[in-house]
Automatic annotation (TrEMBL), chain A:
Belongs to the TrpA family. This is Tryptophan synthase alpha chain. Its EC number is 4.2.1.20. It comes from Deinococcus koreensis. One of its GO terms (molecular function) is tryptophan synthase activity. The gene is trpA. Transmembrane segments: none annotated.
UniProtKB/TrEMBL annotation, chain B:
Pathway: Amino-acid biosynthesis; L-tryptophan biosynthesis; L-tryptophan from chorismate: step 5/5. Keywords: Amino-acid biosynthesis, Aromatic amino acid biosynthesis, Lyase, Pyridoxal phosphate, Tryptophan biosynthesis. The lineage of its organism: Bacteria, Thermotogati, Deinococcota, Deinococci, Deinococcales. This is Tryptophan synthase beta chain. Tetramer of two alpha and two beta chains. Residues 62-390 form the Tryptophan synthase beta chain-like PALP domain. HAMAP family: Trp_synth_beta.
């Protein structure tokens, strides 16, 4: 790989490496782009970026079938406020002036196809995006997306789930260039009662046989206690709906993030 | 056992019809789709499965459905002979039951105790609830709030059959959102739940499997037409398309014939208030290639990929995409897809009702309207088969509401021409 090609990959790996050196799991907050409003988003993102090892920004989408009601409603609100794909990438470009934290974009494939895969990668790279998380794109569906991402210096992250067979885990793990995203439960995103761990340790043990990249765990992690459990076994902890709920309830997002980030300490 | 399930050359082993189809779903579902694919392949050639399905299709569904020469409609059009393939005679009132029973049998075979389904007009929901009742399965049906309003009778039917109807209020509160919720349920409960998908959409193997279960419509048409016309292929076949399951059911047995033996295959899309108005559900005429519900297809979406809410007078056609096999047929010229407006469909409904005493579903009324237009351009010795996908009982309240709307209301265009139809019929 050339220097340009490895930019996103290198930055993401460095973020995980820094956290590991401090005996932490990387703290990876998620926020829907343009939520609660286009004007209100930068302050929320600033608060999260200041505390994040890596941040995940969602491109609001009308039909997010991997997401639960919290993120779906956030997307609907952001879309109603005029946010969309190009606009979200524009918001990220603004954030890049103030923050050096790696940013990965979570997006469904239809917005990528609609903008055009090459144009989408160009816009993302230009905005300073480091990588992509593609929840409805199993890696064997469209090789072109991953190749184009690499061409524009973007890392790609695919997902594994508790239902994944060993063969699928191997295929998915080997296709990831940024990090591997392990979904903690069968289900959609969103806060849940009870332990987030469940089948996670066994899934991660399997994934570590194949993954040459760090492994983050998400879905259902919404407080310091569950973050602490996940941090014991994973390289990174993804937390999303908890921050959307915090914004919705008028809580101090930075304080909520501090609490959960503390849970990532081993 | 006389039933066989067809083997068509498409999709390929990745579930693609040309560039359409595929599996764009969360990774959680991939193993379940593999499991379903394996189970379906085995069932497809298992005499025990086929024998049971055959028995149910004959004794429970009332197959074969008649092929009926609509003489008065033919006379009215003054051209080609119009036959109706009467899927409205099926138990529960539409073609949907063919597929639901087959998938529910597959669910039992796979050891699943719980089935879920999405529904727009309610026909697929009623058929799923019926199959679940028959086979002793727990059933949950997702339905948009807007469709619950339009189809309250079918909601009651589902409840009576023991199914739970879950109201969907996200997005546009219609079929696409009900489908999203059903997929979310499946992602969550994938280990013990079977998703009975209602049309030739969704991730592989659904578009192929649903087509195979519906292909009995076209297979019956072949031998029925041979008996009355001495040939298996008509000159044209017309069927309405939302997702496209009734259309693929009658098209597929003809679609893979050599070009010179193939009838014209025509799908009528819901043009709503007109494709040019943007208020429609015509994915081929007014959409472009995109991905929804796990499949690449023609899709109503804006230039940033957000799904554009569809509109149709018919809840069953109110879907922003169209099955991947139809997309491939359209792209390769195997079939044609023509838009038919709400007003034209209402005209088709009234025409068939007045001339033949058959109240068709609003979905099927789109096909009736176009078939009459087409017949006028053809010769008397030529033959059109219209797939009458369902009966109109579920729609009569909505039709009454629509026809009572004052003439100057913007949702009713002069093309309805209520008096004009009556005049023609009387003449």
């Amino acid at each position: 790989m050339t220097a340009v090609q490895s930019r996103g990959v290198a930055r993401i790996h460095a973020a995980f490496e820094r956290a590991r050196a401090q005996n932490r799991a990387a703290f990876i907050p998620f926020m829907t782009g343009g939520y609660p409003t286009a004007e209100g988003f930068p302050a929320v993102a600033d608060a999260l970026l200041a505390r994040a090892d890596l941040m995940e920004v969602g491109i609001p989408y009308s039909d997010p079938l991997g997401d639960g009601p919290t993120i779906q409603r956030a997307s609907e609100q952001a879309l109603a406020g005029g946010t969309s794909t190009r606009h979200t990438l524009g918001l990220i470009k603004e954030l890049r002036r103030r923050h050096d934290t790696p940013i990965v974009v979570m997006t469904y494939v239809n917005p990528i196809y609609a903008v055009g895969p090459r144009e989408f990668m160009r816009l993302a790279a230009d905005a300073g995006v480091d990588g992509l998380i593609l929840p409805d794109l199993p890696p064997d569906q469209d090789i072109e997306i991953a190749d184009l991402a690499a061409e524009y210096g973007l890392a790609v992250t695919f997902l594994i789930a508790p239902t994944s067979t060993a063969a699928r885990v191997e295929l998915v793990a080997k296709a990831c260039t940024g990090f591997l995203y392990a979904v903690s439960v069968t289900g959609v995103t969103g806060a849940r009662e009870g332990s987030a761990l469940g089948e996670v340790p066994a899934m991660l043990a399997l994934a570590r046989q194949y993954a040459g990249v760090p492994i983050a765990v998400g879905f259902g992690v919404n407080d310091a206690a569950t973050a602490r459990q996940v941090a014991e076994v994973a390289d990174g902890v993804v937390v999303g709906s908890a921050f959307i709920n915090a914004v919705k309830n008028g809580q101090d997002v930075g304080a909520v993030a501090d609490a959960i980030a503390a849970g990532c300490q081993r | 056992m006389t039933l066989t399930l067809p083997h068509y050359p498409m999709p390929d082993d990745r579930g693609r019809f040309g560039r359409f189809g595929g599996r764009y779903v969360p990774e959680t579902l991939i193993p379940a789709l593999d499991e379903l694919d394996t189970a379906y392949r085995a069932a497809k050639t298992d005499p025990a499965f086929l024998s049971e399905l055959d028995r149910l299709l004959r004794e429970f569904v009332n197959r074969p459905s008649p092929l009926y020469l609509a003489q008065r409609l033919t006379d009215h059009a003054g051209g080609a002979k119009i036959y109706l393939k009467r899927e409205d005679f099926n138990y529960t009132g539409a073609h949907k039951i063919n597929n639901c029973l087959a998938q529910a049998l597959l669910a039992v075979r796979m050891g699943k105790k719980r089935v879920i389904a999405e529904t727009g007009a309610g026909q697929h929901g009623v058929a799923s609830a019926t199959a679940a009742a028959l086979l002793g399965l727990e059933c949950v049906v997702y339905m948009g709030a807007e469709d619950i309003r339009r189809q309250s009778l079918n909601v009651f039917r589902m409840n009576l059959l023991g199914a739970e109807v879950r109201e969907v209020t996200s997005g546009t509160s219609t079929l696409k959102d009900a489908t999203n919720e059903a997929i979310r349920d499946w992602v969550t409960n994938v280990r013990d739940t079977f998703y009975i998908l209602g049309s030739v959409v969704g991730p592989h193997p659904y578009p192929a499997m649903v087509r195979d279960f519906q292909a009995i419509i076209g297979e019956e048409t072949k031998w029925q037409l041979r008996a009355v016309e001495g040939r298996e292929a008509p000159d044209a076949i017309v069927a309405c398309v939302g997702g496209g399951s009734n259309a693929i059911g009658i098209f597929a047995p003809y679609a893979y014939l050599p070009k010179d033996q193939r009838p014209r295959l025509i799908g009528t899309e819901a043009a709503g208030e007109g494709v040019e108005t943007g208020r429609h559900a015509a994915s081929v005429a007014g959409g472009r290639v995109g991905v929804l519900h796990g499949s690449m297809m023609y899709l109503m979406n804006d230039d940033e990929g957000q799904i554009v809410p569809p509109h149709s007078i018919s809840a069953g056609l109110d879907y922003p995409g169209i099955g991947p096999e139809h997309c491939h047929y359209s792209e390769t010229g195997v079939a044609e897809y023509v838009p038919v407006t709400d007003a034209q469909a209402l005209e088709g409904l009234q025409l068939l009702t007045r001339l033949e005493g058959i109240i068709p579903a609003l979905e099927s009324a789109h096909a009736i309207y176009h078939a009459v237009e087409l017949a006028r351009t053809m010769r008397p010795e030529q033959v059109i088969v219209v797939n009458l996908s369902g009966r109109g009982d579920k729609d009569v309240a909505e039709v009454a509401r629509l026809l009572d709307v004052p003439k100057d209301a913007p949702t009713v265009t002069p093309a309805i021409q209520k008096p004009a139809i009556q005049k023609e019929v009387l003449a």
